[in-house]
Amino acid sequence: MMDPRLVQIQERFREIGETILVGSGKGGVGKSIIASTMALIMGGLGAKVGLLDLDLHGASIGWLFKGLKTEESKNGLIPPQLLGVKAMSIAFLSEERALPLRGAAKSEAITELLAITNWGKLDYLIVDLPPGTGDETLTALKLIPEPKGVVVVTLPSRLSGVVVSKLMDLLRALDVNVIGIIENMAWFEQPTRRVRMFGRGVGKEIARKYGVDFLGEIPIDPALNVAVEQGAAALLRTRFARALEKIIRRKILGRSRRT
């Protein structure tokens, strides 16, 4: 018999205009902060936006939305809102407890989260994919109906490029659209020049190799950690957010209006 949750997931996503996935193939590249800030920026531009954190073991979106709780209803869990963005994370349910999940339990957790979250009508749902190319990522890519595509995040380092290429190979094998590549932590701004800490060109090389768009570079912003501690409004005032907003306006929202 078909799992009734799969039908429920299809019903949930019928009310969502476009689903944009954010992935990297590994942790530590700024994927979650890009997904979170992307959702907040798009919400600030007037769109109805949701933010879904599917990282089961290192959920970090819950930290930015700390103190918020889901609301139970007969039609599922209603996500809390911050600056107009609806957010859902396993962290809202597990709080500070570790989740010792393995194997099929990971897929079950993601299936349940997709099925029980009642987003209502959205223009965009931003999904922070789990790091890596294991069970969680495969389950998410299988169950999320007709995503617009994946924004892939890399660092300007060769190691990051190698790992991201593995994700690109997986997305190609699964016939999942790639919106483009963002190179995060691309440079550090000094008074008279830009200093590149890791090298340059990795994001562009990956984009050329796989025939996808290079969406742009985002600088290292020392103010970012402090801004995250202060909350979402402070985050939106950072150099990091301004650089990401330019990418969103030119490469993501602009493309949506043309297609």
Summarize this, please?
The protein has 259 residues and is α/β, with parallel strands linked by helices. It has a single domain, classed as Rossmann fold (3-Layer(aba) Sandwich). Helix content is 43%, strand content 20%.
What does this structure look like?
The chain is an alpha/beta fold and 259 residues long. The chain has a single domain (4-258), classed as Rossmann fold (3-Layer(aba) Sandwich), CATH 3.40.50. The chain contains 11 helices and 12 strands. It has helices spanning 4-13, 31-44, 61-64, 90-94, 104-116, 135-143, 158-173, 202-210, 224-230, 232-235, 239-258, and strands at 16-23, 49-53, 71-73, 76-78, 81-82, 85-89, 122-128, 149-154, 178-183, 188-189, 194-195, 214-217. The protein has an 8-stranded mixed sheet with strand order 5-6-2-7-1-8-9-12, sandwiched between helices. Helix 1 crosses helix 5 and helix 5 packs parallel to helix 6 (135-143). The protein is globular, with a radius of gyration of 18 Å. It starts with a helix and ends with a helix. The model has no long low-confidence stretch (mean pLDDT 89).
